[in-house]
Amino acid sequence: MKKLKERWGITSNFQLAVIFVVFAITGSASAWLSKPLCALIGFTREDLGLLYTPIRLILIFPIYQVMLVIIGFIFGQFKFFWAFEKKMLISMGFGFLFKN
Questions:
Q1: Which region holds residue 10: left if phi is over 0, alpha if psi is between -120 and 50, else beta?
Q2: CB atoms closer than 10 angstroms to residue 18
Q3: Of all helices (H) and strands (E), which one includes residue 40?
Q4: Rounded distance, CA 100 to CA 83, Å?
Q5: Angle CA(40)–CA(46)–CA(50) in degrees, nearest 5?
Q6: Quick check: 100 pLDDT over 70?
Q7: C-alpha to C-alpha distance for 96 and 98, rounded to whole angstroms
Q8: What is the Cα Rg of the chain in Å?
Q9: Rounded Cα–Cα distance for residues 5 and 28 (Å)
């Protein structure tokens, strides 16, 4: 855990625990929300077959990104998760979103 705390630039075990809780809540909530979103859009397993799961995963991704920052804010970790999001999106090729 020491290396992870150093890598993320945090000092307390409490902050590390809060960050893990935020990751857990966000992952569960985004997966849970993707099912009704698919139903709202009209995607069903019966209609799409094997494509249903990849399409649902694609839908989860942006939901997860937004919820991570929001839930991080609720738990008082906005600064950490905003920096985490920017770093991840830049590494995925979306750096143009953050240039001045």
A1: beta
A2: 17
A3: helix 13-41
A4: 16
A5: 105
A6: no
A7: 5
A8: 16
A9: 23
pLDDT digits (tens, 9 = 90+) for 53-78: 888 888 888 889 999 999 999 999 99
SS3 92: coil
Residues 85 and 36 sit within 8 Å (Cβ to Cβ):
no
Cβ partners under 8 Å of residue 39, min gap 6: none
Residue 51 is given by DSSP the state G
Place of tokens 């997966």: 31
Q: Determine the Cα–Cα distance for residues 49 and 66; give it in Å rounded to an integer.
A: 28
d(CA 63, CA 30): 6
Q: Which two tokens stand for residue 1?
A: 């855990």
User: How many angstroms separate the most distant Cα atoms in the chain?
Assistant: 49
Token pair in block for residue 3 = 């290396």
The residue among 63 and 24 whose pLDDT is bigger is: 24
